[in-house]
Amino acid sequence: GDHRDLHLCDRRQRQMCIRDRLQTAADVKIDRNKKSCRTPRRNDQVERALSFFTSLHGWCGRVSNYFRSSVFPVQSLDKLDMSAINATGVFVPLVPLMLPAAGDEGGRGSLLPAKDQKAFIGEQARSLEAKLSALGKAFADEKKLVTGAEANILCALEHIKHIGERISHCVDYIEHMLEQQLIAAVGKELQPKDFGEYMQFHARRLFSADYAPKPFVYAIRRPDHCPEGVLTLEADVGDGQLEQPLQSIVSSVKANKPMYFSLGAATRAEFLGERFLHGAIQHQFSNVKDAKLRLTARARQFSSFILLVGKIASADTFEPTHAVIIQNKDDVLIPLLLETIPSAKAFRDAIESLSPEQQRFAKAFSCNAIGIDSLCTLRCRNQTATRTIAQFATRWIDERNSFDSRFDGNVYHLSSTGRFVVVRWKRR
Fold this sequence. Notes:
about 35% helix, disordered C terminus, seven-stranded mixed sheet, disordered N terminus, five-stranded antiparallel sheet, single chain, alpha+beta
């Protein structure tokens, strides 16, 4: 219908409606016992309130834009001061003040005492009424399309938008104030590295020495021999300092059954040695990038070993996807690109709306996709008697094209003893 149907009440009725609404006290209480309540800004009640005012702000903007772009251009606006249609001068009764509870408040704090709240609301009503009266006089011609009613509507919409913006600013100010107090108490702004160091300190107090997290640093060596190299998993948190070894919980065992990996379609190699299972939790803040992980392998002078990178296919099968011979003071740096494994709850929420067939497929595929990243180091030595094994290894290298360096003419033997490392990652 005609937009003039918005004239639902006369001037006096509008005044009474505004006065009654503004004098109605709102009682909002944050449930601090809920697990989702983190701060005065980050809780369900405030999030819902801000979401409502965000939607209301958008609705007011759309209505105002409709009047200004679709309705008002129908008539000539040359003689009208359209810039006067705003909410400038209307008092917004919202300030981020926190005062001690008065004696009659029953132990509850309030932004302002009751009499001051009424004074604030009264000033808002007075300034809004004065603004509406001024707009009614500026657009007094009832025969034209732009009248005092339309100007009042746009002024009220602008005021509502200002209220929503002020509420957002107030809760953000309180959050910022509490953050500054916490920083002053701690002494600095915490980063993921600081939280990781705190967790290491906590782990030393909680776990015994055998079960506490340890740095991912291993010497590649044969029993009763000097080390031939070093294997390290380093983390770069982006603070400009040197990379530090990743802290992980480790379980180790001496292998009593061999594991195998394929050299070709009909040949496979077996290996024993020590086996390690690692578990690590990386800490991440919402506004900070993930830590970059890097696998570092170094060989000593006149020493060499083979590094295989792959996944565990079964209880006795290792599937290498990449390999490299590291020898004579080589220093190999391999950046690791990891993917976050969703938690069980996040996975259930993601597939909740899918059909039963799609849910079964997603569960089966996730079980297949989540593998255990593994590393295997093998000692290599010069032996002309093992040329057959070396030929198989050379052909395997050429077929997969996964070695970063080539043979130098020597014949290498894949020793039956080695070090096997299994790594399982999970981010929180």
